Amino acid sequence: MATNVILRFEEVVAGYGKETILHGLSFNVRHGTITTVIGPNGAGKSTAFKVAFGMLPVRGGRIFFDDRDITNLSPRELIAGGISYVPQGRNIFPELSVLHNLELGGVTAPRGFDLKPRMEAAMDRFPVLRRKANQQASTLSGGEQKMLEIARGLMLEPKLMLIDEPSIGLSPILVEEVFGLIRDMRARGITVLMIEQNAKRALEISDDGIVLDLGRPRIADRAEKILADPSIGQLFLGGGLEPPRAA
Asked: Would you say 159 and 135 are in contact if contact means Cβ atoms under 8 Å apart?
């Protein structure tokens, strides 16, 4: 495997019950990049994330992370190995405080791991979480809850963050704020692989893009090339894409 690749799918087959969703899916994710996965509903985007994080068994093929075969490892093993996952929708403990939600991000930390500096770093990075540390998480706005989810995912300093639909349900202003957090992760050396409904804007801040169709990669290329290809908009987004703007 090329040394600049952190995650690799090799002919991965997976699905639910008798239904196969991923039909020999292969793609690479480069170290230190943002990669956005797009495609129509039912293309297999969330399924690919679930198998990458050990939440759905791989029926065929292999998955490699940092040159290590991680096929069918458990989520706990994958977290310990440097992968974090922020699923679609709200995934906080609403009745617990912001502080306790953050602490739960370190529940799988190895013995002797000091969470306190990680908690301080998270609240330095997200000042609103420090201001509201003792409030119930349910009192946070939608954007603040998404920040809490991301902050919790960063507690164990992952090498790779899988983020499914980070902007769903957020206002345009909050979308830009969340995307700013994702760019900040890349600047700190964390690789980000995300699924995003706002495909155009996500590709604008991404290095690479993967277009899935029926559980197979239709296109895998640099994000700017995908943005410049009008056929992508016509086939997968219901219309043409405008030229990219600055991230």
From this structure: no
Q: Is the dihedral of CA 190, 191, 196, 198 positive or negative?
A: positive
C-alpha dihedral sign at 98, 102, 103, 107: positive
Tell me the backbone φ, ψ of residue 3, rounded to 5 degrees: -65, -20
In contact, 247 and 204? CB cutoff 8 Å? yes
Whole-angstrom distance, CA of residue 68 vs CA of residue 73: 11
What would the pLDDT profile of 66-82 be if each residue is shown by its tens digit? 999 999 999 989 998 99
Instruction: State the pTM of this model.
Output: 0.87
* pLDDT (tens digit per residue) in 171-212: 888 888 889 989 999 999 999 999 998 888 899 999 999 999
Per DSSP, the chain holds a count of helices (H) and strands (E) of 10, 10
d(CA 153, CA 178): 14
- 146 three-class SS: helix
- Provide the edge-to-edge strand list for the sheet that holds 208-213: 83-86, 160-164, 191-195, 34-38, 208-213, 216-222
